[in-house]
Amino acid sequence: MAAEVQAICMLARVAVRDGDVPEAERLGRVARALARGTGEKRLELSPTHILAGCARISGNLAFARTLYQESISLNETFGEWRMVVVELHNLAYIELHAGHVDRARELFTTALTRTVDQDIDDMLPYVALDTAVMAAADGDHLRATRLLAALDHALRAAGQILDPDDAIEQTTLREGLVTTLGRQSFESVYATGAGLGLRDALDV
Asked: Which contiguous run of DSSP H or E holds residue 67?
């Protein structure tokens, strides 16, 4: 049954990347029902994460918050500390979009600190995005632009893209910065950040 749950979760991830969020949600629910039927709580980890992401993309903030909190608790139970950081990062966006800026800042800061302290290098692009988003929210558009440039450069160098829900935040941030600074000023500041490594850009 564990293999079946994981296979369905993989199909759900493919559906999300293809932009078919309703299908991903349907598959996530099937996977979670199967997992719960086994009585093995560990099998609920992936389905819960997937369903939370679907709720976030769909704008169902209350449901996403509940699911991310559940996911954090589950991952803490099983000592999956990297995934705890991932879900703290995800939950922060729910709080930010709900207008709870201070709570979002607290969660983003915790995710950044744990990423650095635990050497979770694959989370550096995500916490760089988080820091850029908060910098823009605080009105520091120059820092936000430099961080975005460092993030873009790191992703291109690694041949990677952000997860779909975070890619939406990345696009929204970019569009907001271009609108605020103007295209020419944005590109000028962006150029100064493109050569920075993520740790340098984050100053960690």
From this structure: helix 61-77
